[in-house]
Amino acid sequence: MIYYCSHVAHTDGAPAYAPTARNEIATMSTRPDDKGDADPALQRRLERLGLGGHEYEWTDRYLLCNYLIDPPSARARQKFEATSRFIRDLVAHRWVKTRRAREKTNPKRVHYLSMEFLLGRTLRNNMMNLGAEAIVQRVMQQEGWNLEQLMEEEPDAGLGNGGLGRLAACFIDSLATLQYAAIGYGLRYEYGIFRQTIRDGWQVELPDNWLRNPDPWEIMRPGKTYVVPLAAKFELRASGMIVTPNRPSSLLGIAYDRPVVGYGGSCINTLRLWAAAAPESFDFAEFSQGDFVGAVLQNVAAESLTRVLYPDDSTEAGRALRFLQEYFMVSCSLQDIIARFRKTNASWSALPDHVAIQMNDTHPALSVAELMRILLDQAMLPWASAWEITLRTLAYTNHTLLPEALERWPIEHFEVLIPRHLEIVYEINRRFLDDVRRLYPGDEARVQRMSLVEETPTRKIRMANLAVVGSHSTNGVAAIHSQLLRTHLLRDFAEMFPARFNNKTNGVTPRRWLQQANPFLAELISKEIGSAWVTDLAQLRKLLPLAQDGGFREKFRQAKREAKVAFANWLKATSGQIADPDTIFDSQIKRIHEYKRQLLNVLHIIILYNRLRRDPNREMTPRTFLFAGKAAPAYHLAKLIIKLINNVAGTIDGDPLVRGRINVLFLAEYNVTMAERLIPASDVSEQISTAGFEASGTGNMKFMMNGALTIGTRDGATIEMAQQAGEANFFLFGLTAEQVAESANSYDPGWHYANEPETRAALDLIFSDYFSKYEPGVFTPIRDTLLRDGDRFRHLADLTDYARAHRDLASVYADPQAWARKAIINVACCGKFSSDRAITEYADEIWNLKKSPVE
User: For residue 679, what is the enclosing H or E element?
Assistant: First the structure.
């Protein structure tokens, strides 16, 4: 038996076999007891991947070469890594071929800059996209390994907080599947978003060291290292970040590449993540004077920069670290982009013809100043030429309607750390405001609003303003969001630059969120209409006639039942929590935030609870309310809402009068993997944000794709979803965005408390300490938010209509055929919400990007 340890060459953008993949495969024997060649289907699969040869003994090979252990004694983690490295080697050949094809044709490439990429687990996704499931399953059977158990060894890649990062992950999937030349840029956080546990009802944050074990998908690129200069030294201490001005220092950015496997395996793009490292030298003067700690302290600080997912801005230390992380990502990425461009292009004026840079929210907005710095100081271009190139190259996606969520960085951060960038921003602002004054003479209020510099209460740089002014495109992520950007949040800019503003409604990848996450439904769909929907989600329209077919409705209901049973079994095995598949699974899974209104959901649950307390014989379809999501560690009210959910859950579970009829579960440690299990199992999707506050949402699309019915407000992409499937197949309620805005100065939450008995009874139950007998007064801040401080997010204004919508929902659910009909129509009409559609629109309308097929 021959074992071959593969070698990965450090090439720009992809690993390569040496000498050739085909020759390597030929050196790997089949098992001694195998009879003949691999079966024809597997043989064709290997040949399609460009590998050829026989089925080979990769399990023993990787375990022996990577761990120097006898394969039968391998632990589960080692088996997982062996399997993953085999899949990565299958990827490698196409990865190299993709890179070579790009070098040969020199197409325009999009560079997607995002502080977050919430990837989830990679093994199953890559097996599916590569088409290697049959190969792996055969070897699993030969070895007696359990593939499902092995995949549990992979942690979710902790590279994001929520929807922003998951959208970026869906987008890079679509870019590869559609065969666009593209590369994603982000940061390689050693510790991702915190691990969430619940203790006495409270959220407790623990470190998420997702890189504790080697990540088999990443490849370190020591040859791709860039120097990031700073005008000051900084130290990270327990009490914060200490900056020493006028002491120039530098960071090193080291590239780590992950393959992005397009569906079918033809195109493999790259996600390049930057890790911070210290320069190779240290302050020898300090060392020679005996201060060894001082000499290496700067190195420790440098290496800590990318240790934690960018922090919230509730502390000065957190703000400074986040600012540094953003500059570090932008500097490394722009240097890499320019180096690649200059390899094959002599003229700087050609940059926009070969390079598109998409700034995912304001986090990469420093790209405006950094690209200008490169063009002015390195290319030595005049200002006008550099500015034209910058505008044509950069584009900006806005993801929020909350003014407080738009980043504003203190001038002092720029002055101390990157003063040259501040000079450039000041000059951009001077020229821009001259234009504003010419267009709107005498309107100094407009000038102040549009300035890149916020003067009061402290001087700050407005990063959203910089992103809009320094790019050729600003897009929102749903029709209502883009409209509100133009008419409210960025109205002055839209009036000045109307052609720059456009809409690109979000989308999600059907490969992960239906084909992979919900095999029960995916297999049913493919049997009925074929599998073309996997890369053309509009094909699901073919299901519309089947909504009227009683036989198909029954099969659809059975697929949902199987998903519910699978989720319930997983939940019990992993957490001990019980979810009865015969109840309505009503799910609200998203970041815990006031505007997303988990509190509204809880208030309605208490209304249902009160109804049953008053009338125990009342008819009610049993319901399981499922909550999952994390609150930012410094967001105290959000954490209190989690506490209320858990206390209400415990109280209801302990009441024999209602036990089994209402079940409330808070699922700790929400992540992509949990979503992949829960979304297919859900009957009801809660999309209940205050109208005018949710930019788009993507969870709403995933639920729709998997046959859950939406109860929601007319907000974000839910509006467009209802337009596609028909409002009769949604349960909509509440104030519109216009009504919320119009009532800003007249809304009185106290009126609802005084005049709506069920609202008053629910609040009184909370504030009487009924749910907090041993912690009296703990929920007083919720009373203050709702009744004293004006209920900014209109919980009480929408509660009665929300309860009405739930009554309508329960009435439809009581008729299984009617419910199934509506659910099938939702699935059939979700085609618009594919990330493939979204990316095609970005490519055609913003990036001017053509597909670059890899033969």
Answer: helix 672-681
User: Which pLDDT tens digit goes with each residue over 419-453?
Assistant: 999 999 999 999 999 999 999 999 999 999 999 99
Phi/psi of residue 21, each to 5°? -60, -45
Locate tokens 């209509």: which residue?
Answer: 801
Catalytic residue among 393, 509, 698, 785: 698
| Annotated active-site residue in 564, 590, 752, 806 | 590
- Annotated active-site residue in 99, 166, 702, 806: 702
Q: Which two tokens stand for residue 492?
A: 């002055």
Residue 563 to residue 680: CA distance in whole angstroms? 6
35 is catalytic: no
**H-assigned helices in 305-366:** 316-344, 351-354
Tell me which residue of 558, 591, 507, 578 sits closest to 833, measured CA to CA. 507
Angstrom distances, CA of residue 668 to CA of 70, 152, 330, 642, 675:
38, 17, 34, 10, 12
CB 16 within 8 A of CB 96: yes
Task: Answer yes or no: 590 catalytic.
Answer: yes
Residue of 204, 837, 748, 107 lying closest to 505 (CA atoms): 837
Q: Where are the beta strands (DSSP E) in 720-819?
A: 731-732
Residue 625: phi and psi, rounded to 5, are -95, 120
Instruction: Give the tokens for residue 104.
Output: 């040969």
- Distances 499 to 24, 395, 463, 473, 640 between C-alpha atoms, Å: 54, 13, 20, 8, 44
Closest CA to 374 of 324, 346, 335: 335
**Is the whole-model pTM more than 0.85?**
yes
Active site residue 504: no
Taking only the tens place, the pLDDT of each residue in 768-825 is 999 999 999 999 999 999 999 999 999 999 999 999 999 999 999 999 999 999 999 9
**Single-letter amino acid, residue 614:** R
560 catalytic residue (yes or no): no
What HEC string does 19-58 produce?
A: CCHHHHHHCCCCCCCCCCCCCHHHHHHHHHCCCCCCCCCH
702 catalytic per annotation: yes
Check residue 12 and give its pLDDT.
42
Find residue 270's DSSP bridge partners. 183, 259
Query: Rounded to the nearest 10 degrees, what angle do helices 816-828 and 550-575 cross at?
Result: 90
